[in-house]
């Protein structure tokens, strides 16, 4: 595998060179590839002093950026989108090298970045407030939105560029500055993406400190979270991480936007189109080697169709090509680390100890690299391991008899990110989307749990953190609201008919 590692190293270096970025050599951080499990480059990690300095530079840039007209701010994001289009293939290569995504998924992630830039450019002319009816004659009551400040972005390895773009494109048009602490597992993607934004900043004349990249581990994240100059911390990662970040930011009266774990389920009703369900389930459960926060982890199937569906799923799983994500035909690449593969194996052992039956996959395949077959486990009930999120391609299958039972099973987990139902019964579909149906931030009908479009707000409830990123009105998290009252009369009227010094 030494030859393959050398090939990947050369490909990464060539992609960075075309983007215009250099690999910062040094110590403290390593760029690795899960394709072979080998180290590609030794990198210099950001120091604690550099974290503090980056926040200071971003705060200074914000003071100029906040008064720049929003449509002008949109031009910066338009330029970034153009650069992403020009280097789509280079970024996709880096994502595959560092994350192990297959080619179509890596290209899809870059396309998602381009799409959010397009969305944000349009948004730059639509940061609407509102006019409110005043109870006082000769008065105008209005609501306006203003830039918030410095946004600290902490992102995870599985979408190393897209999640950054969700936050950064929106924050920039809202008038904010950004300090980014990416996963230490994906430094090359971070270097390349940040460099493209630096090029866009230089090309448009935006303030130089508007975006800062921190390549470091947990300590840098803790410093960023604790800095009172960081007005919003947008953190994507585990629920455990969110439990640490949330209280620390709240203690200093900062804002948080948390996008945490998901234990997502799909209900398959007796009326479901099983061909459609099969395709949706396999991608949602096995895509990205089960390493999406929206990955399908629980399948809740009506008893009348459970055996038939599981048999068909097992047959498809038996044919899923697992291997090098650059190879044509591969659909499932590696898990991110050996530790992730060990976690998957331990979860499968627990599931079987809790009464589960492994009906497909689950075996480690050839290495080096943490490759494993996506697994299907039939469970007698929703046990402790089923209620946990295991970040690996394990699909637990449960059965139900009544719709109410299915919804209760669906909602009986700590997380509330993504959900779906496969049914041709309109009443069931509408009930699933109703207030007493799915308790998730994303609820779908006749489509899987993965693959959200940028036009809708992305996020979930309960232990998923409650944050919303990307489309719809998620932009409001990156701005501060002001309520304005203008008296254009010649008298002073007090609200609620209060009389004072008349």
UniProtKB/TrEMBL annotation:
Quaternary organization: Homotetramer.
- One GO molecular-function annotation for this sequence? aldehyde dehydrogenase (NAD+) activity
**What name does UniProt use for this protein?**
aldehyde dehydrogenase (NAD(+))
Cross-referenced PROSITE patterns = ALDEHYDE_DEHYDR_GLU
Under InterPro entries, the record lists: Ald_DH/histidinol_DH, Ald_DH_C, Ald_DH_CS_GLU, Ald_DH_N, Aldehyde_DH_dom, ALDH7A1-like
Per the record, the similarity remark reads: Belongs to the aldehyde dehydrogenase family.
Kindly report, in one word, the top-level EC class recorded for this enzyme. Answer: oxidoreductase
Q: Which Pfam families match?
A: Aldedh (PF00171)
- EC code: 1.2.1.3
Where is each Aldehyde dehydrogenase domain found? 29-481
Origin organism is Actinoplanes siamensis
Identify which residues the record assigns to the active site.
259
Q: Which UniProt keywords apply?
A: NAD, Oxidoreductase
Q: Which domain of life is it from?
A: Bacteria
């Amino acid at each position: 595998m030494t030859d393959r590692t050398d090939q990947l190293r050369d490909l990464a270096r060539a992609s960075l060179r075309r983007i215009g970025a250099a690999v910062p050599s040094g110590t403290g951080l390593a760029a690795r590839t899960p394709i072979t499990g080998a180290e590609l480059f030794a990198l210099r990690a950001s120091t604690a002093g550099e974290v503090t300095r980056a926040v200071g530079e971003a705060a200074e840039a914000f003071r100029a950026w906040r008064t720049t007209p929003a449509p002008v701010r949109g031009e910066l994001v338009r330029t970034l989108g153009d650069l992403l289009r020009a280097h789509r293939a280079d970024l996709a290569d880096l994502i595959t090298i560092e994350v192990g995504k297959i080619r179509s998924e890596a290209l899809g992630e870059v396309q998602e970045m381009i799409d959010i830039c397009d969305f944000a450019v349009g948004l730059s002319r639509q940061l609407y407030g509102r006019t409110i009816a005043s109870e006082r004659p000769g008065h105008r009551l209005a609501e306006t939105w203003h830039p918030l400040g410095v946004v600290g972005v902490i992102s995870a390895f599985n979408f190393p560029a897209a999640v950054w773009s969700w936050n950064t494109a929106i924050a920039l048009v809202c008038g904010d500055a950004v300090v980014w602490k990416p996963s230490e597992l994906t430094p090359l993607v971070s270097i390349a993406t940040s460099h493209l934004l630096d090029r866009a900043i230089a090309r448009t004349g935006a303030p130089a400190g508007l975006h800062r990249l921190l390549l470091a581990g947990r300590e840098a994240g803790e410093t960023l979270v604790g800095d009172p100059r960081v007005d919003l911390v947008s953190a994507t990662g585990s629920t455990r991480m969110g439990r640490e970040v949330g209280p620390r930011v709240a203690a200093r009266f900062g804002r948080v936007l948390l996008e945490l774990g998901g234990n997502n389920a799909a209900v398959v009703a007796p009326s479901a189109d099983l061909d459609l369900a099969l395709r949706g389930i396999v991608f949602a459960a096995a895509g990205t080697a089960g390493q999406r926060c929206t990955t399908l982890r629980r399948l809740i199937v009506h008893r009348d169709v459970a055996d038939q569906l599981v048999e068909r799923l097992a047959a498809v799983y038996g044919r899923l090509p697992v291997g090098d994500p650059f190879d044509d035909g591969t659909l499932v690449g590696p898990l991110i680390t050996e530790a992730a593969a060990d976690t998957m194996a331990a979860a499968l052992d627990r599931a079987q100890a809790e009464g589960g039956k492994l009906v497909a996959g689950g075996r480690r395949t050839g290495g080096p690299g943490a490759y494993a077959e996506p697994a299907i486990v039939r469970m007698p009930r929703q046990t402790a391991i089923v209620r946990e999120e295991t970040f690996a391609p394990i699909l637990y299958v449960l059965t139900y008899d009544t719709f109410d039972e299915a919804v209760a099973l669906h909602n009986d987990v700590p997380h509330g990110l993504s959900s779906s139902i496969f049914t041709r019964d309109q009443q069931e579909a509408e009930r699933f989307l109703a207030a007493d149906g799915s308790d998730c931030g994303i609820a779908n009908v006749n489509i899987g749990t993965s693959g959200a479009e940028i036009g809708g707000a992305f996020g979930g409830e309960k232990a998923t953190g409650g944050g919303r990123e990307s489309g719809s009105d998620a932009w409001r998290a990156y701005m501060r609201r002001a309520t304005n009252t203008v008296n254009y009369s010649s008298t002073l009227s007090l609200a609620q008919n209060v009389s004072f010094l008349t």
